[in-house]
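Weekly modeling sync, notes
Attendees: S.R. (lead), two postdocs, one rotation student

Agenda item 3: backlog of single-chain predictions. S.R. asked that every request posted to the team notebook include the full sequence so nobody has to chase files. The rotation student volunteered to paste the first one in as an example of the format we agreed on. Action items at the bottom.

Example entry:
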Amino acid sequence: MTAGRTSSRDRAVPRLDGITSLALLGGCFLLGTLAGFAFSCLGGGSEPLREYLLRYLRQAGEGAAFAPSLFSVIWEVFRWFLLVFLLGFTALGAVGIPAVLAARAFVLSYAAATFARLFGLSGMAASFAAFGVTALLTVPALFAAAHNGFRCALSRLAHDPPPVSPLAERLALLAPCVGLLALAAALQWTVMPALMTAVCARLFS
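Predicted structure, as returned to the notebook:
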């Protein structure tokens, strides 16, 4: 009886190849992006938010914006990656990893769409300076970790040997991603504040 229930549950877990799992994760990211855009467009009563952001952007243009600490930059850059990496060690990652990707896409899309809705092209430039450049590095690294972790989580859910089981092998596979994230953190801490100041000084002063 137990063996029958186990085999039935194992058959219910889909076996996805690399391309299919990557497409599924990409679909979750796309859904999060569309949801963030839709929520931003449906937002009403945005005048107080616009005034608040405009005041901040003008302060940034004057060089008076808050400069984040190195620890906060590292945490901001690595937290999504670390979450999907850890979820890959459990069967919970089969649901949690797609949800994390959708949430990350929602946050990026909502922020970018809100800046664009409130300030037009100037807002798009400011959002790209604030988080767009580093997103070009962090999102591919996040996808690599998510793809690897998602396949491992599905294997654990089906009681199969994971495609990459030893911790050392997973770390070696994802080492280039850590390099991308380290570069993103370095840019976020050193270059991006100056870029943000220059953009805001030109467009919002």
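Discussion: group reviewed the output briefly. The helical segments are 2-12, 18-42, 47-61, 70-87, 93-119, 121-157, 167-203.
Action items: rotation student to repeat for the remaining queue; S.R. to check formatting next week.
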